[in-house]
């Protein structure tokens, strides 16, 4: 089991995408703010630098407009981009981390040891066991690469990220057949925007099947209202931009259920 509190609230890029309340996404300050607000997990984006360090940044280009993969970790630090080791060292003990791994075109030609997959595996070899960890990616070769490394696979959860164009039934089936732990489904594919009853169709069935197959389900990036509907159909984790609002909405949802 990856998520021990259901649904786990996962801070998207820390306290949320962009610069909410002045906390810039994917910064140490943003991750600490998410944890202080009650998130039990944070999600961050991992890329490789030109000198084979892993940095935490969503976009393929740095703030200066230069490809991240062509810049050294030191040069990226000068632009405010922090390294993965720095984030993992700064986070409070017990806070789970979902690493959204961003592979690059260079991974197709570079020697295996320099590819993003191998660098992530090396980093996990240091940090696995220190806190709950999940590695997710739109690139299914990333979790597959890690799955085949038994020492890591036993300590790190592995997930498949899906987009708007992949229905939840396909996402769940793919994650199960890839031998992964979590299907990370885009919230727009789940139909959680209407009345709560509307969420009890395909999405609810997909979650039920996922659980029967031993798979957990996370959705991203849910609003507080969508998070309560996700909880109603048994989704295990919600990755959100509004941590305080989501926690408040889930508390109301739990209270209403207990009062029934």
End-to-end C-alpha gap: 29 Å
The gyration radius over C-alpha positions equals: 18 Å
Spatial arrangement of strands, main beta sheet? 1-4-6-7-8-9-10-11
Which residue ranges are poorly predicted, with pLDDT under 50 across at least 5 consecutive positions? Answer: none
User: How helical, in percent, are the residues?
Assistant: 25-40%
> Can you count the helices?
10
Could you give a short account of the major beta sheet?
Answer: 8 strands, parallel, barrel
Structural class designation: alpha/beta
The geometry reads as globular
Helix and strand pattern = EEEHEEHHEHEHHEHEHEHEH
The portion of residues forming beta strands comes to: 15-25%
The mean pLDDT is: 94
Instruction: Give the number of DSSP strands.
Output: 11
Describe the structure.
This protein has ten helices and eleven strands. It has helices at 28-37, 73-78, 84-90, 116-127, 141-147, 150-153, 168-177, 202-212, 224-232, 243-259, and strands at residues 8-12, 19-20, 23-24, 41-48, 54-56, 96-101, 133-137, 157-161, 182-186, 216-222, 237-240. It is globular, with a radius of gyration of 18 Å.
What is this structure, in a nutshell?
The chain has 260 residues and is of the alpha/beta class. The protein is 36% helix and 20% strand.
């Amino acid at each position: 089991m990856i998520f021990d509190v259901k649904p786990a609230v996962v801070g998207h890029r820390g306290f949320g995408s962009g610069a909410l309340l002045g906390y810039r996404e994917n910064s140490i300050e943003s991750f600490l703010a998410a944890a202080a607000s009650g998130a039990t997990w944070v999600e961050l984006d991992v890329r490789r630098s030109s000198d084979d360090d892993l940095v935490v940044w969503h976009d393929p280009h740095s703030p200066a407009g230069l490809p991240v993969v062509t810049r050294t970790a030191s040069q990226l630090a000068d632009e405010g981009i922090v390294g993965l080791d720095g984030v993992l060292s700064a986070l409070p003990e017990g806070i789970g981390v979902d690493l959204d791994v961003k592979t690059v075109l260079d991974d197709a030609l570079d020697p295996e040891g320099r590819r993003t997959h191998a660098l992530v595996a090396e980093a996990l070899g240091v940090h696995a066991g220190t806190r709950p960890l999940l590695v997710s990616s739109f690139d299914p070769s990333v979790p597959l690469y890690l799955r085949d490394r038994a020492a890591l696979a036993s300590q790190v959860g592995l997930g498949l990220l899906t987009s708007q164009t992949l229905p939840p039934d396909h996402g769940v089936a793919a994650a199960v057949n890839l031998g992964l732990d979590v299907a990370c489904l885009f919230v727009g594919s789940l139909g959680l925007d209407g009345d709560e009853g509307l969420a009890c169709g395909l999405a609810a069935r997909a979650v039920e099947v996922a659980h029967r197959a031993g798979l957990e389900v996370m959705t991203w990036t849910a609003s507080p209202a969508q998070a309560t509907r996700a909880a109603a159909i048994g989704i295990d984790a919600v990755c959100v931009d509004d941590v305080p609002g989501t926690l408040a909405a889930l508390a109301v949802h739990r209270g209403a259920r207990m009062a029934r």
